[in-house]
Specification:
This protein is α/β, with parallel strands linked by helices. It contains seven helices and seven strands. β5, α6 and β6 form a beta-alpha-beta unit. The mean pLDDT is about 90.
Length: about 200
Amino acid sequence: MSEHIEVLQRLTEQFGKLKGVGKKSAGRMAFALLELDDASAEEFASTIIEAKRAIHECPVCGNITDKDTCHVCSDLTRDRGVICVVEDVKAVMSIEKVREFKGVYHVLHGVISPVNGITPDKIRFRELLERVGEDDVREVIVATNPTPDGEITAMYISKYLKPLGIKVTRLAYGIPVGADLEFADEVTLGRALEGRRDV
């Protein structure tokens, strides 16, 4: 039906551009939006624009924030001697739900993937080296996903940091191989943090 109404078709296509949203889900979202009253629809649209304009990367760790620095980097009670390296912002949010990690984060915004042509210079690896050199870092916890690319990235980080005398650990495998951190429950993530091991 949406193909007969051009603006509805365009709306469905816009929702379909969102990562993880299939054609049917995009259609459902478009119809759900049409059911909103005008005021709610305008609020929805303005919130999207506001979020896009206000949210940016934290200049310290690469997390997202609407302030100068993210809530973790601006928290003076966090242990800056322990950095947890993650692939993306969703992993930060997942670990924060556990409420056990008291250090800070470094978001790579990707992983090394030779097959896909993603080299260390295409992720935030250089920024990690700079942070380790500037701060008094004792330990780096590599919390990349337990996938082949996540493992390659963990080994690469370890190769560069261990010679600097920094302890490099990996999350324990309470997380199933091939799974993403964002889908792990709090108990599993908590045990994985507690049982981290040397790389």
